[in-house]
Amino acid sequence: QVQLVESGGGLVQAGGSLRLSCAASRSIFSARAMEWYRQAPGKQRDLVAVITNGGSTNYADSVKGRFTISRDNAKNTVYLQMISLKPEDTAVYYCKMRGSTWEYWGQGTQVTVSS
Question: How far apart are CA 110 and CA 51, in angstroms?
Answer without folding.
Answer: 21
